[in-house]
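NADP-dependent oxidoreductase domain-containing protein: structure, please.
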Amino acid sequence: MAITLNNGFKMPVVGLGVWRMEGKDVRDLIINSIKLGYRHFDCAADYKNEAEVGEALSEAFKTGLVRREDLFITTKLWNSDHGHVLEACKDSLKKLQLEYLDLYLVHFPVAVKHTGVGQTGSPLDKDGVLDIDTTISLETTWHAMEDLVSKGLVRSIGISNYDIFLTRDCLAYSKVKPAVNQIETHPYFQRDCLVKFCQKHGICVTAHTPLGGAAANTEWFGTVSCLDDPVFKALAEKYKKTVAQIVLRWGIQRDTVVIPKTSKFERLKENFEVFDFELAKEDMDQIKAIDRKYRTNQPAKFWGIDLCQIHVVATLILIRLLASKLGADSGFKVHVEDEYEFDAPKMLKGNSETLDPVVVLIPSAPTNQFQWQSKHPSCLHYKTSLLWLCLARSCVLAPYSLE
Ligand SMILES: NC(=O)c1ccc[n+]([C@@H]2O[C@H](COP(=O)([O-])OP(=O)(O)OC[C@H]3O[C@@H](n4cnc5c(N)ncnc54)[C@H](OP(=O)(O)O)[C@@H]3O)[C@@H](O)[C@H]2O)c1
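Here you go.
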């Protein structure tokens, strides 16, 4: 079963994610998964196992297990290579032993100091905060991605971990539209606004962390796994399936592509056996109701900076600024159309009783008018242009103006 992307290429709806897959296990897992029917593999330069994946794929082709044209291979541009897109892509192709990629994604919407092609560094400054490169815009990175398509090195290009504002912005500046946005989404982090926004604009959503990261994210980030939720236990019983199968099936039925990772052979099989049943509407609705708006993958742990929190801060500052310009009694109303992280109406209610969530802040691109906010105490800590990027790229105040 496959989803047709906006450029006509087909992407299998279940793939195998290879993050945190030990190099020594990769060969057997890839070969076995191909035997089970997997045709889609989700890799990344930053997973530091492209060479092992390449070895396994090469063996699969040589032995006639599968043909290159029957596989869908994704890999991703790391943050430290935004200024070296062509070289980074060629480096990944070499390691994967491939002539072309089916999909190349911008792994995160942030460029950091270059650490050498394919070295995938996440350098921190002396304060322990990610050393962000403010000289490369996401638009520049995207145009370099587009060049890869014209060069025939990649069939499709896409984005990853882009919120609704950055996605909207990418649609505005792109000549080649992103085919995919790969984001964390699972029953505890459903992000319906973002998913629907992407789908409405022809961008296929791939759900990374489709099992909520399960034991791995509990271990790494101390998060709660949706696989233990009683709702799923009951549904598993009802459908005579495992909890993981119910969760993956839910992902497929909301038209997202799922890329669960496992290092266990029996689970490879389990995670692929999701095509012989269908969740009834009332069960889809029941799962919809258990959303906790809960991110389980927390790169902030390593980066000393929480990209999502910055955006919340930015949004709140912006709303306060608007409120002060327009006057609390002007009947000013705000609704921020976005995924949960902002849940601005709720936050506003908690923070200012004078604001009532109704009007839409439409994201777009003013830039310099927010410079003053760098002095805001909430932002000083980050002292990077990331906040400005968020604001510059994301907030247009229609029909209001700050002038
Ligand atoms: N674009 C991005 O920034 C980004 C971020 C994160 C992930 N990803 C991609 O998404 C893929 C999946 O994400 P993820 O690995 O973080 O999370 P995940 O697939 O949601 O969960 C993986 C965890 O679930 C366990 N698991 C797998 N199948 C299971 C089953 N049937 N029953 C119970 N537990 C099961 C795995 O353990 P075992 O291995 O022991 O089975 C592992 O602990 C990654 O491999 C990567 O390709 C992308």
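Notes: Residues 326-403 have pLDDT under 50 and may be disordered.
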